[in-house]
Amino acid sequence: MTTTFTPTSSDSPIPTAVPTLLPTPSAQSVQISHPFDLTNWKLTLPIGESKNPKEILQPELANYVIDPWFIPVTGGLRFRAAVNGVTTGGSKYPRSELREMTDNGKNRASWSSKSGKHTMFLDQAITAVPQVKKHVVAGQIHDDDDDVIVIRLDYPVLYVNVDGDNEYVLDSDYTLGKRFSVKFEVSEGQTRVYYNGSAEPVYTLSKEYSGGYFKAGSYTQSNCSKEESASCNESNFGEVVIYNLAVSHQ
User: Which Pfam family, any one, appears in the UniProt record (predicted)?
Assistant: First the structure.
């Protein structure tokens, strides 16, 4: 694997950031329109049965809301996953996250980094982190085995993370709620990351992979074993607001 940049680091201390404590509404779904197109996505929620979280597919997803995990806010959609949430069988962490699909949401997306051009644009803000392990993933590319590259906040440092390693610093002192944009562009075995409208990629990963697909939302990187027992509840969560989400394939 080769990259165009070498990792950097931040020596700034990590302050305490505690999510705003909110009353927990009942988990009831309602019908409402969304600010961007969700046709070719499915949603995984941090609720359901152990290792079998609730998933929302099309056509239900088109107008789906469930408070507090997936709701519209001014200009965007809010994704929240509490540390005590249900996880998938392949992860120990909860998520409120979209997974790329095809054919109007009927089939799972699966593309190759060697063929075509695949792009995801995200305009978003990370609005809350867990109280102890202050880590949230907000945007990913997966292949048929594991995550390839992700946008990860190890509060307060915002990174491009590759294969579990924080490879490039996007923001060394990220403020919760600060809006930023990221674009992933994949072609000819290269995965390029653009940040806040940069004309050139800020980071490039040289790696060939197949079974590729995009993910977006809040993938909270903590659980009750990482938090204090008193904070193992729905008031302790990771949260992301997405204002715009667009995917293209050429």
Answer: Alginate_lyase2
